[in-house]
Design brief:
Helix content is 78%, strand content 0%. By secondary structure, the protein is an all-alpha fold. α1 runs antiparallel to α2, α2 runs antiparallel to α3 and α3 packs antiparallel against α4. The chain is elongated, with a radius of gyration of 16 Å.
Length: 138
Amino acid sequence: MSVTSKKPNVPFFISFSRYTVSAATATATDFSTLLIGKELFGLDPVTATFIGACCGAIVAFVLGRNWTFFNKEGRVSKQGIRFLLVVGGSILLNTFGEYIFTEVWVLSHYMIARVVTAILVGVTYNFPMQRYFVFNDK
């Protein structure tokens, strides 16, 4: 039994730079959905955060596979399942963060809570999980 090295398709610095752009795009989708849900439809911030995170996740997967980590060789179904597992954790972390900041620590505005939570989750959880687990089929 041989052990093969799993080397990502894109060098770390390039993938992190691309991830930043992709995450900003997905976050713009996420946050705009959150704002529309909260301000136009009157949803509570936690529910609107969940819906926004789901919309942002779709954008993140498409960009992650096709540009950020450039791994179109991997089976989309395998990557999709992995991505769903990771994004499920991300949605829970983002929703929990929104809850902690708005309901427990009573931060002054729900969007401040959302930004702080998104940065923390994106850098410490999403990027490493996508780079080394979701889009690393080698």
